[in-house]
Amino acid sequence: MTEKTMRPSTYAIIEPEEASKLIYENVAQVGVEEISLLEGNGRILAEDIYAIGDMPPFDTTAVDGYALLWEDGIETRLIIGERTAGKVSDVTVVAGTAVRIMTGAPLPSGANSVIMVEDTSEDNKKLIVRKLPQASDNIRPTGQDLQAGQLVLKAGITLNAAELGLIATVNRPRFQAVRRPRIAIISTGDEIVEPGEVAAYGQIYDSNRFSLVAAVRNAGAEAVSLGIAPDTREGLKNLVERALAEYDGLVTSGGVSVGKLDLVKDLLEEMGTIHFGRVNLKPGKPLTFVTVEVDGKRKPVFGLPGFPVSSLVSFELFVRPALLKMGGFAELSRPVLQVRTEHVIKHSPERNEFVRAIVTSHYDPETSNYWYSARTTGAQTSSRLLSMLGANALLKLVPGSNEIAEGSIVSAILIEQI
Amino acid sequence: MTEKTMRPSTYAIIEPEEASKLIYENVAQVGVEEISLLEGNGRILAEDIYAIGDMPPFDTTAVDGYALLWEDGIETRLIIGERTAGKVSDVTVVAGTAVRIMTGAPLPSGANSVIMVEDTSEDNKKLIVRKLPQASDNIRPTGQDLQAGQLVLKAGITLNAAELGLIATVNRPRFQAVRRPRIAIISTGDEIVEPGEVAAYGQIYDSNRFSLVAAVRNAGAEAVSLGIAPDTREGLKNLVERALAEYDGLVTSGGVSVGKLDLVKDLLEEMGTIHFGRVNLKPGKPLTFVTVEVDGKRKPVFGLPGFPVSSLVSFELFVRPALLKMGGFAELSRPVLQVRTEHVIKHSPERNEFVRAIVTSHYDPETSNYWYSARTTGAQTSSRLLSMLGANALLKLVPGSNEIAEGSIVSAILIEQI
Question: How many whole angstroms separate alpha carbon A318 and alpha carbon A324?
Fold first, then answer.
């Protein structure tokens, strides 16, 4: 055991806004890669996508029915052929004739209207028409949906079902997307034990790493768990170096407090640039942000506090936006609602406190307006992970007083759907 | 080419509510499996999780500092030892003494208060105290966060960062979760071509399958693309049989319209029970729902229309809730908001029309109320996938009139975040 005297942190405490700015300025999009249509869900498009041709590429029918001349009116026609979508027979519609046509098939030449099968009957190759056809009825003209050369999707959008359908429509089986950041996750602390092993007296089970793997994935990144860091400076250094060599960034939990045996901050100080080491935040004050140059790349390390709630709340506020930026997402922020407090909330008079809460929506049918209320999730201790359960928002309570009255309006950062 | 006469569909048209009910009654949760903590994100818990012991398991400190007796007041103490979280030395605090203690370490016997390092200084094994300690300061008593035997998480909840942290905390490296439904996806139609190949005249590129793979994944299920179905009854039958033997359900697109060459409905009629074959819906009228008994299991087949928007809208309204139910999700519905239309909207006077729209929120700081407005995404043709782009809602327009006035209040189903 070292006999170094235990001393408080000497890092300046910065405001949350300053911390966000420093992180934003020091992380960058990780790069692009070619992917296939089946891999595209949730990815960020990294090139503009244009229509190569018109869509539909030919005049076609929107319904199953008969292609005919509207000028023939309601008179009975002779059925002279059939067109399905995939089998295109060469047939021309002339006065007094009609061609059976299936949805999506090219319109036969000559035809200028399509009548729905529901408005007809067939009798021995004769078509009986029960509704007066109009010019262009049920015809989808060439290029109605997309025109050749048209910009269909802009680089930077998030790909979902409709966007992927459009990329397929314009015949792009592979395309450029932003690579998902690959983030290593390490837990530190000689008191934590892998779940499944046996905790000795003084030990507890590691939980932060499993929470953080989920949180990283929910920020569109790949999460790789590197386990619990060894208890020695040398072992920790080797693991951190390997993580930074192989991955785009590193998230640690624990080891950033003021204790004399908290190795992480010391090590990171030696390896890279500490942009900040404390934030005026509750929970999450010891949050540390470091960048390390590795092979010419600046890689971020987020040192999160060890208490489970401190770890998750500081991840939510600071690491999530960073990972989204690295992954090319345009929108880095969660939605914020102004909500009315359902009860008195005690809070820190000195620090920006982020309180876990349940926001409920209320609708007034007379005015068609909505308002939102919020109640906290019980005891807000940093260690009490139960306070995150069911929470769909973090209420931001600014320093000044030490409580806010029932019915006050505060900002709620929505972390889940209401 | 068959010479079977083309005839309209004979399936009764049912209302959307009836269709939802029939689907709900005929799909069931697919079963459970054991998974690990690292696989848990987004999964549905399938067992109750209890605390095996107290958390914290011993009296501990919430801060780095010194364990001492509060009754000694502000007098200087002799430092007699040190406790880190993982290395527990056997030391007892008595009057006039203090023990260095790191966050999370068990409280040494005798101590009844912990003073933060920030409120102290050390001088040659002497501890100088600059703040009067109070009883129990900074002590986290045994069981403060969780008590042995306590129900921590109930079966049925969705697992996210906090929930997974709690499962780790109570030392459950593996646990029961609902299995993700495995859903096969097939496109049909002899006019569609795989992206990357060359479309002949009359052909277009398959897009629905790629959209549906994304949509199935977004409903918490596994999606397996089985390609474009062969153009023959025998080939289609073999593919559908294989899909139903290997997967929990099947989604097809195309082949459910009224055309005489639409093989899918005919085949499904032969293989299973058609619960409905048409819905009073725009877009999506030909939506078909079938169940087939395979090895004693009832497996759902959703026959979606071929037009891209019809396919995606009917998926959203009917297939998504079914997959969520199969996957064990408690909440099957999207949030619905009452919104004010920004302009006149023409719609079908006969069918329930679901119009793609962009909902915007408006905040009134005077009343702290919100209201929401909606505008459509342009031409609402069933083929025009662009009408899905940027849409965050589907407006439900009920039959009756053929337009709704600007400023009307309508229901908006939120399919994306506002």
Answer: 11
- Any CB–CB contact under 8 A between B404 and chain A? no
Domain B60-140 has CATH 3.10.20.30: no
Helices A233-246 and A263-271, axial angle in degrees (round to 10): 50
pLDDT tens digits, one per residue of A268-279:
989 999 999 999
Separation of alpha carbons B395 and B282, rounded Å: 12
Whole-number Å distance between alpha carbons of A189 and B171:
17
In degrees rounded to 5, what are phi and psi of residue A385?
-60, -25
- Per-residue pLDDT tens over the stretch A92-126: 999 999 999 988 899 999 999 999 999 999 999 99
Each residue's pLDDT tens digit, B181-203: 999 999 998 889 999 999 999 99
Is residue A259 over pLDDT 80?
no
Q: Which of A417, A398, A412, A390 is nearest to A341 (CA)?
A: A412
Residues 202-241 of B with CB under 8 A from A: 202-215, 217-218, 225, 231
Q: Do A160 and B87 touch (CB under 8 A)?
A: no
* Average of per-residue pLDDT across B344-351: 95
Identify which of A203, A312, A371 has the shortest CB distance to residue B368. Answer: A371
Structure tokens at B55: 């958390």
- Cβ–Cβ below 8 Å for A196 and B6: no
Q: Is the pLDDT of residue B85 over 90?
A: no
Residue B26 tokens read as 């005929």
Is B13-31+179-326 a CATH 3.40.30.10 domain?
no
Paired tokens of B251? 């989604």
What's residue B86's pLDDT? Answer: 66
pLDDT single digits (tens) B305-331: 999 999 999 999 999 999 999 999 999
CATH superfamily of B336-414: MoeA, C-terminal, domain IV (2.40.340.10)
- pLDDT band, very low/low/confident/very high, at B90 (cuts 50, 70, 90): confident
What values do phi and psi take at B246, rounded to 5? -95, -25
Checking ipTM against 0.85, whether it exceeds it is yes
- Vertex A84: Cα angle to A83 and A85 (nearest 5): 120
Question: B34-54+145-178, superfamily in CATH?
Answer: Molybdopterin biosynthesis moea protein, domain 2 (3.90.105.10)
Indicate the residue of B118, B161, B307 with minimum beta-carbon distance to A312: B161
One-character DSSP codes across B238-253: HHHHHHHHHSSEEEEE
Task: Indicate if the pLDDT at residue A369 is higher than 60.
Answer: yes
Q: Tell whether the model's pLDDT for residue A208 goes beyond 90.
A: yes
Across the interface, whether the CB atoms of B199 and A8 are under 8 A apart is answered no
The distance of Cα B11 from the centroid of its chain, to the nearest Å, equals 33
Q: Is A118 exposed, middle or buried (0-12, 13-18, 19+ CB in 10 A)?
A: middle
Q: How far is CA B82 from CA A60, A190, A252, B105, in A?
A: 83, 15, 25, 10
Domain chopping of chain B, boundaries: 13-31+179-326, 34-54+145-178, 60-140, 336-414
Query: Is residue A417 within 8 Å of residue A373, measured between CB atoms?
Result: no
Rg over CA atoms, chain A: 31
CATH fold match for the domains A13-31+179-326 and A336-414: no
Question: pLDDT tens digits, residue range B116-139?
Answer: 999 999 999 999 999 999 999 999
Size of interface A-B (CB pairs under 8 A): 330
- Kindly report the length of chain B: 418
Q: Supply φ then ψ for residue B323, to 5 degrees.
A: -65, -35
